[in-house]
Every structure is written in structure tokens, then in C-alpha cells.
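Priority: low. Protein: UDP-N-acetylglucosamine 2-epimerase (non-hydrolyzing). Input follows.
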Amino acid sequence: MLKVMPIFGTRPEAIKMAPLVKELQCADGIDTVVCVTAQHRDMLDQVLRLFNVIPKYDLDVMKESQSLSDITSSVLRGLDDVLEKEKPDLILVHGDTTTTFVAALSAFYKKIKVGHVEAGLRSFDKWFPYPEEMNRKLTGVLTDLHFAPTQTAKENLIKEGVDESSIFVTGNTVIDAMKYTVKENYIFRDDRLNDVDYNNKRVIVVTAHRRENWGLPIENICNALRKIAIDFKDTYIIYPVHKNPIVRDTVFSVLDNLDNVLLLDPIDTDEMHNLLKRCYMVMTDSGGLQEEVPSLGKPVLVLRDVTERPEAVKAGTVKIIGTDFDRVYSEAKLLLTDKNEYDRMANAVNPYGDGNASRRIVQAIKYAFGMTDEKIDEFKGSV
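Result:
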């Protein structure tokens, strides 16, 4: 049996790793041992419950006001014992979190191979997003099997000197996850979401919490949202607000007193996916939503200056608008007043996946370890 250990610690990682865990658990010849670091505790647990993923190991590293150094040292110490005990043939990490980089480093120390899911994303600026850009680059140096979601990601890796034979273009596993979560006639657990008039209100879903947007950028975003809510009474803004007090203090001080703005605590993954399905458009600084939302046919305005996910920008379903007050307001206004522009973005093709990424990754692992001679049928939908 080939022993494979998926390691993840945050909600975004868990959303994208859960369908892969399910695929691994069904695969012949593979012993799957799940380890979570709980870099994020409550939000991670929501996803584990949703997908019924039961970790064998839970490092439970999260603590109040944790720094990046706290996470790094706690994960490194915790994984040292786990990897020594289990001795997996391969660990799997995802994306660009501190857990991802540190798990790869820990495996390197134990001379264990590393598979990197969602490999090759680059913004080409080590400070944006911070610390994610350096996390994924450092992870890439330690990786043996690179599972790139798109051809663009593969090309980024080749330019950095990665052996092409170690790169597999798979599509993004988040599209796999949405096959589990998006349902017709979905009933929200939060009744406030059931009470929204999705037929007569143009619902704008907002998420903004990234470190580089703390302070004035978040303030600009919120003031632009306030003007949108006041000027367009047929809109209804739903903003699940990150629990970080730096973010919450600004958001609630600007937006808490408007009738057509609903501020929520972070919502579970299935709630978010079904909300995205019903909304009119999305404004976000999230990386994951840039991949998820295009598959649902909704325009995305990215509240950042750069993105490591250029494919949807090229396809036309995503537009990078930054955090300047005037630009945020004017770009939202354009989608609310120009039907042709809205239709152009809403009908663009999603370049990120076809729902079969997890299957391809498992096949690629088997191929790399000599369990099959059959190469994967790589994802061709890249831009």
C-alpha cells in the first residue's frame, strides 16, 4: 500500500482538499492518513463536518492573536512527531498557507516526498499577497509532484526551472468541491439568508479581509459599498465579515446601519456556495472565490491590485479593480447599469476546472509511483 498523508490547516485548504481526500479513500492501493494543523480552528471544523472528513491527527495549533512565527514553529514541532510515526510515502499540501510551506519543509527534513496541489500560482510580488506568495514559492522548491490547476500555472513552474515531467495539469479541486455543495432548492441554516428577496433584489456578495487590505484599503472598500447601497436601492449587499477585529471594527463602523446591507459572521462553505449561486455579482479580495464564482456564471470584481489567478481575467469573468474608493464604486456601478458589460462577464467561460481534478491527481500519484502506466488526461480548459 502507498501511504499518502494530506496535511492542511485552514478552511480554504480544507474546501479544496476534501474532495481529493474522498477520491484517495476510494482508490485501490492507497492508504490515506489525514492530518490537520487547525491553523484556523472553527472554520476548519465546519468543512471537516460538511465533507465528513475525520483526521487521524489534529495538531490544534491555533491560539489567540497568533503570529506567523507562532504558526510556523507549532506546525513544525507537531509534524515532526507525526511524520516520524507514520512515515508516509507522500504528503499532500495545498496552495499557499503557512501550514502548506511548513508541512513541505517538515517532510523535506524527513526525506519524504511532497505533492503540491494548486501548484504554480504566482503574483510575482513577494509582498502581495503576503505571506502567501512566498509560501507557495518556497513550497514549490521543496515539491516533488506539482499538481498545477492550469496551463498558465505549469508555465510559471517551468520558467522557474521545475522539471516538466513532475508537473501535472489537473484543473482546480474547488470545482470538484462545488459538486458536493451547490444544490437546487437549498435551504440556508441562517434564516436571514432565506428571507432575502433574490428575485427582486440584486444581491452583491462581498468578502474582504486580506492583510494587505487592512487599514485604509478596507475603509475605502466599505465607504464605496455604503455609497452603492445608498444610490442603488434595489441592491442588497451581503458581507460575511472575517472575525479579525482589525477588519470587523472598520466594516461595522461604516456599514452597520443600512437597511440593504446584511453583515454576517463567516458562513459555512455550503452556505457560501449556495449564496454565490443566487447572487448577482461578487466583490472580493479572496483568491478562492476568483475560481469558484466563474463556474456559477457571476461577474467578480477583485479588490486587489494584483492576482495570482490571471486566467479568469483573460477569460473576462474577473476584473481586478484595486481598493481606491472611486474605482470600487465606479466598477460596481458599471455592472449595475450596463447590461452588456454584465452579460459579457457573466457568460465568460470558467478556465479553472471541470470537476475531475481530484481524479486526475490520484491517477498522477499512481503513475508517479509506478502503480499504473497510464498517464493522466490533463485538463485542457486553461486560458
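The mean pLDDT is 94. The two ends are 37 Å apart (CA to CA).
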